[in-house]
From TrEMBL:
Residues covered by the AB hydrolase-1 domain: 27-256
GO molecular function: catalytic activity
Protein name: Pimeloyl-ACP methyl ester carboxylesterase
SUPFAM superfamilies the record matches: alpha/beta-Hydrolases (SSF53474)
Amino acid sequence: MAWVERAVVRDGVRLVCRDSGGPGAPVLLLHGLAGYAGEWDAVARLLAADFRVVAFDQRGHGASERRPGDVSRAAYTADAVAVVEELGLGPVLLVGQSLGGHTALLTAAERPELVRALVLVEAVPGDASPGTPKEIAAWLDSWPVPFPSREAAAAFFGGGPAGAAWAAGLEEGAGGLYPRFERDAMVGSLAEIGARSFRGEWLKVRCPVLAVFGQSGFVAPEDAEDMLARRPGTRAVSVLGAGHDVHLDRPEVLCRVLREFVEDGLE
């Protein structure tokens, strides 16, 4: 599968997109905090025969604008809307992991006409989480930057497919490998999640929803249960052998359940 690179510019912020092209139903993939579009490559290869797959580096990440002035939830959501509209994807199957899932949820709530269905991977609306920005800051500060090699980075990130994907997202610089983002932009992107609940937005979602959780993921069982109880029509799946990065740990399973969701619930 060959990606075609496209750029979408919204409010002066350049967003770098990867588009598989083709006549299939459009799917937009949103990566999580500190991630990049390339995380979705394994998923994209499995879907590209039947879908037009698009992924993009969100603001502050990867090849997109590194230092955006606005890292609010509204800015991330408006970026997703701009990509859908400018690339002619709507109504789209919108898939997001972690913070990307949160962005996908807000997009579906705000612009329902653009979202055919929603797949949330290790993402919940949840209550305010005041400690999250500080926890993520401490985690980012623990990275032994620069990493001396991709092998060392992959080991730091836990090894396996997920560790290799995180390592592949680093860029070369003086003395080693560095993240393709600014630490303060990542922490700032979580400020609103730390300050308030988004359960109201969750109740505004009207399209079919599939919630995918990793067997050893980060989502607390009570948060998943509360999410599903507030919207009983939501389909939920737990993926064995997967952690928070379900799309990296078990891409074939994620694609299978996504296809089943489309075939059973949308046709």
